[in-house]
Design a protein that fits this description.
Layout: H1 6-18, H2 21-28, H3 32-46, E1 51-54, E2 57-60, H4 62-87, E3 93-99, H5 107-118, E4 122-128, H6 131-139, E5 145-149, E6 158-173, E7 183-185, E8 193-196, E9 217-221, H7 225-233, E10 239-242, H8 243-246, E11 253-259, E12 264-272, H9 282-303
Parallel strand pairs: 3-4, 3-5, 7-11, 8-9
Antiparallel strand pairs: 1-2, 5-12, 6-10, 6-11, 6-12
Helix pairs in contact: 1-2, 1-3, 1-4, 2-3, 5-9
């Protein structure tokens, strides 16, 4: 039995990601014969086949999935080691930033890019999680800053500063009769079928029409944003979208403001009271500037 190699593990991972040995060769800038040779060596090391050869592409076997899981750990660790070695000469400032999922659509990535441009010494490591999980991470000193949907209560020693009030909008298919109107009265939405992450009362979905007597007819329940937007784009229903996600939405979806609705989520930046990393940190300032810019972009998109 042979040995697993770094090059071989990279080939196995890329073949699994692309579902094709030829596409893996293109992505890694290898010849197809070189990829096939690496796969053979890795299968010899494993003592069994790592891929099913299908009429169109390949698929990992059960053994392949085991190797992939460990390959991700090994390759990520090696990449981290390479980054740290590269940073030895740059005296980096490491910053651990947590954010809830919607904030990672545009707000946090743009802030990271802005901070990198003006403060190249800052190295941001992003961690995604729910607001409660990130609050716990702050308390346990696992993250330095956290972008949260305003929690009801803060743990002792945690402070916040506001970033923006994130308004809620309605997403419809670009071919929907209401598409392009910019805003609609809530009554026009009464006969629509809705796509939501939960059927329970009190979910964020209900905020759009909390002042009316009727409740939505739910057509599909999907927690994943990609699934929600795919259903919307196909004309199978409409859904509520937070303003933070609007600039990242595809052209197959149109955004509507609900007339008279004041539904929004306060978005805040949280930090430890005893830390030097607070609302005056350069990255915190980049977040504030990005939040203001995103709010403007959303308003402009609704006018188009």
């Amino acid at each position: 039995m042979g040995e697993f190699t770094v090059a071989g593990l990279r080939v196995v991972r890329e073949a699994a990601r692309t579902g094709s040995f030829s596409r893996a060769a293109e992505r890694l800038d290898y010849t197809q014969s070189a990829v096939s040779r690496q796969i053979t060596l890795m299968e010899q090391a494993a003592g069994r086949a790592l891929f099913e050869r299908l009429p169109r592409g390949v698929r990992p076997t059960e053994a392949g999935l085991i190797v992939l899981r460990h390959a991700d750990s090994v390759l990520d660790a090696l990449d981290n080691a390479r980054d740290e070695l590269r940073d030895l000469k740059r005296a980096p400032v490491r910053l651990r930033v947590g954010a809830f999922s919607t904030a990672t659509a545009a707000l946090v990535p743009r802030a990271i890019a802005t901070a990198a441009q003006h403060h190249p010494e800052i190295r941001v490591r992003l961690r995604e999680g729910t607001s409660q999980v990130l609050l716990n991470g702050l308390v346990r000193r696992r993250v330095d800053l956290a972008v949260l949907s305003q929690p009801e209560a803060l743990p002792e020693g945690v402070e916040t500063t506001p970033l923006l009030d994130d308004s809620l909008y309605v997403a419809v298919a670009a071919t929907h009769p209401l598409a392009g109107r910019g805003s609609v009265p809530v009554g026009l939405l009464r006969k629509e079928r809705w796509i939501t992450g939960s059927e329970e009362d009190g979910s964020g979905l209900l905020g759009v029409w909390s002042e009316v007597a009727w409740r939505p007819a739910i057509g599909h329940v999907a927690r994943d944003w990609v699934a929600k937007l795919g259903l919307v784009a196909a004309g199978l229903g409409i859904t509520v979208v937070p303003g933070l996600a609007v600039t990242a939405l595809p052209a197959t979806v149109s955004i509507l403001k609900v007339q008279g609705s004041t539904a929004f989520r306060p978005i805040v930046l949280a930090y430890r009271a005893d830390s030097d990393i607070d609302s005056h940190h350069p990255f915190a300032m980049a977040l504030c500037d990005t939040a203001a810019a995103l709010s403007t972009e959303v308003r402009l998109r609704l006018r188009d």
